[in-house]
Amino acid sequence: MPISLKSPSEQDAMRRACRLTAETLNMVGQAVQPGVTTGELNDLCHDYIAKQGARPAPLHYRGFPKSICTSVNQVVCHGIPGPKKLKSGDIVNIDVTVVLDGWHGDASRMYFVGEPSILAKRLVETTRIALFLGIQAVAPGRHLGDIGSVIEYYANENGVSVVREYCGHGIGHTFHEDPQVLHYGSPDTGIELVPGMVFTIEPMLNAGKRFVKTLPDGWTVVTRDHSLSAQWEHTILVTEAGHEILTWSDYEQAILGLPDCSDHAIRLLHSNI
Ligand code: MF3
Ligand code: CO
Ligand code: CO
Predict the structure, then answer these.
(1) What is the mean pLDDT of residues 151-167?
(2) Lower CB density within 10 Å: C or N end of the chain?
(3) What is the CATH number of the domain that holds 221?
(4) Ligand 1 atom closest to residue 200's alpha carbon, by position in its atom list
């Protein structure tokens, strides 16, 4: 399928879907604490999304049984919410995709349950910076490979690995559209970015090796070596000026802010693309 370019009014519709996605993540974050089950987090998100006249895209998507994905510790992605209680020291990715007026918004964040280990904190922060470095590579005239290359470079620099089996994706009327947005690659390769394109960037980084396997439930993806895994995701619009993070929110700005992407290696890297 060709890559769809979103018109100004379609961009507005996507802004609305993406805003609801961010607001859902803002809301559910306040419920993440020791003792809560991932099933309870699922129900909170489901009800919140439904109340806004939207629907959670994962529910029944290719047979997925729940409304959000909750991926704890060594789970890389597509964790199925259930009766498992979160405990202090866990890290959890919550991935929310909504459909509002026919348009999708998709984002995920990492949350700490109680106090994280130093390793967990470092992996989570490294992954968030990797996402934002990828986002900073988005502008007209840049290439898809620029995004993957900065993410891969930064992960390597920090001694963590990039999962290759799953990637970011175009998004709009459908959940997953072209193009595929790899989180590894080479600068100046792949298609050229054009204003009106909308896609996600959603790197999964492992503290150990990059290899993954899917559990017998057919969904839950875990690291083969049982190492911790982290993921952050935003939906990005390519604009004339560069990009707009459609799933950004004032709340994320206030609580997390933009990560510090300013160290020397990164500036060097950016001068190269
Ligand atoms: N939200 C995920 C993504 O970022 C996809 C989840 S598919 C599901 O692309 F079926 F597991 F929900
Ligand atoms: Co996605
Ligand atoms: Co997602």
Answers:
(1) 97
(2) N
(3) 3.90.230.10
(4) 4
